[in-house]
Design goal:
With about 210 residues, the chain is mainly alpha-helical. It is about 55% helix and about 5% strand.
């Protein structure tokens, strides 16, 4: 049966016409910079926020943030929980795994995202997105990291997504058609990338060995 993934740009285009906080919800560069800011200023607050945000696209509740973290999050008002999670996960990925110093313990501050993975039971559309993203991130870690190092909404991001196309298609269950908005794609890939490396570091996964 045919497997199909459809990338929708309609929502991204709509975001450009929205004012204020609603616009920020679809303005990916703003979202990802805010996530980086929160993680840089208060990693503990970032971990707590990630732990309580739902996996879906309901509006993110940012009321628990204080101090610099709250200042960083001001541009996130009205943003979907899924997208805020993606912004935090990308920043955590770069902090925890992107540049590991010899004198640092990269496990300090780790957080278990408890995401659905490919082997998890089928469920809601959000769960299916995470199951699919887990497969993509695990099977093409190099292209996944390349995507996370691009700026959201840039030409480099589009090129990086093209580099993931083969696994994006291969990881789609037979007979399933899943429409994925661009902001969702980056978010679930970022979260799954972090979750994958976390599981390697904590012994839940083993790196593939060549034969």
């Amino acid at each position: 049966m045919k497997k199909q993934i459809i990338l929708s740009v309609a929502v991204a285009a709509l975001g450009a016409a929205l004012p204020g906080p609603a616009r920020a919800a679809r303005n990916s560069p703003v979202i990802y910079e805010a996530g980086r800011c929160i993680v840089a200023h208060d990693r503990g607050a970032a971990n707590r926020l990630m732990a309580r945000l739902p996996l879906d696209e309901t509006e993110a509740d940012l009321s628990g943030l204080r101090g610099e973290a709250a200042v960083c999050a001001a541009r996130l008002a009205g943003a979907p929980s899924m997208q805020v999670r993606g912004a935090l996960a990308q920043a955590m990925f770069m902090r925890d795994f992107g540049t590991i110093r010899r004198d640092a313990d990269p496990r300090r501050g780790f957080i278990n995202l408890n995401l659905p993975v490919q082997s998890s039971p089928a469920g809601t559309r959000a769960i299916e997105l995470y199951r699919w993203a887990d497969c993509v991130a695990r099977n093409d870690s190099a292209s996944t990291e390349r995507l996370l190092r691009t700026e959201a909404g840039s030409a480099e991001e589009a090129t990086a997504i093209e580099g993931l196309r083969n696994y994006m298609a291969a990881c789609m269950p037979a007979g399933m058609q899943l429409e994925i908005r661009l902001w969702e794609l980056r978010s679930v890939i970022a979260q799954s990338a972090y979750h994958t490396v976390y599981r390697y570091w904590t012994g839940q996964l083993e790196a593939a060995r060549g034969t």
